[in-house]
Amino acid sequence: MTKGLSDRVVMVTGGASGLGLAIARDLMREGATVAIVDIDGACAEREAQALRAAGGRSLGVGADVSKCGELSDAKKQIEDALGPIEGLVNNAGVAVLGAVHDTDDGLWRRVMDVNLDGVFYACRAILPSMQARGRGAIVNIASIAGLVGVPNMAAYCASKGAIIALSRQMAIDYARSGIRVNAIAPGTIGSTRMGAALLGSDLTPEAQARRLAKYPLGRYAEAGEISKAAVFLLSDDASFITGTVLTVDGGMTAY
Q1: pTM (predicted TM-score)
Q2: Domain 9-189+223-248 - what CATH class?
C-alpha cells in the first residue's frame, strides 16, 4: 500500500468514467476518501455509491469544470461532507480533431475552457485549503500531445502543452507551502471513450497500424496503468517529486 493516502480526501474531476473512474477506484483501494466530480452528476453519485458499497468513503458531485462558480460550489460541498481536500486530480477533458485552419472559434474555446481553464479553476478553488494545512498534492492529466505534435489536433495539443507548463510553474510557487504539483502525459488509452473516439477517426487497417507502430511496446495503454501512476504521485511515496511530467506512453516519446 502506498504511504499517506489513508483517509486523505482526494477530488477527481471527470471521475465518473474512463481514466478518472479508474483513478477513483485505485485511490479507494489505497484507503483514500474520494470525491468524484463530473459534469454528469447522477453518474458521479452512482459511481461514488459503488465505491461506498465496496467499503470506501466517497461522494459524487455534479459540476462543469469550465465554470469556476460550479467548481467552487463543488469544493464547498465536498469539504462540508468529507473534510479538507488534500489531493486533486485534474482529469476532465475533451479531445477534438482539427488543424489550425479548420478549427473555428467555438471549437477552440470549448477545448481551452474544459482542458485548460478547468485545471486553473479547480486548482484555484482547492489551493487555499491546502495552503492553510501546509500540505497537498495535485496531479494534472496532460498528454503526450502536449510534448509532441499530433496531426490534426491543434487545440488539444495546445491545451495539453499549456497544462504541462502550468504544472511546472505551480510546483515552484507552492513548494514552500508543502504542496506538490505534477503532470502525467499518457499515451493513447484504447479502452476509454476518448481513446476510442480518437482511434476511430480513421478506421482503415493502414491508419490503425500506423498509430500502433508508434508504440514500441506494441499496444495501447490500459486505464489502470495510468491511474496507478496518478496514485503514486499523490502519495507520500512521491514526497520528493514535484514539477515533473511523468510520461506513461509505452515508449512512444522515446523515438
Answers
A1: 0.95
A2: alpha beta
Confidence of residue 201 (pLDDT cuts 50, 70, 90): low
Concatenating the DSSP letter of every residue in 77-126 gives: HHHHHH--EEEEEE-------B-GGG--HHHHHHHIIIIIIHHHHHHHHH
Give dist(CA 44, CA 49) in Å, integer.
9
171 grid coordinates = 510546483
Active site residues: 156
The whole-number pLDDT of residue 199 equals 63
Which of 33, 114, 35 has the alpha carbon at shortest distance from 75? 35
**Domain coordinates of the chain in residue numbers?**
9-189+223-248
Residue 17 has pLDDT above 80, yes or no: yes
In this structure, the dihedral spanned by the alpha carbons of residues 79, 230, 211 and 198, taken in order and rounded to 10 degrees, is -10
Phi and psi at residue 88, in whole multiples of 5°?
-140, 130
From CA 154, how far away is CA 101, in angstroms rounded? 9
* Backbone CA torsion sign across 57, 82, 232, 190: positive
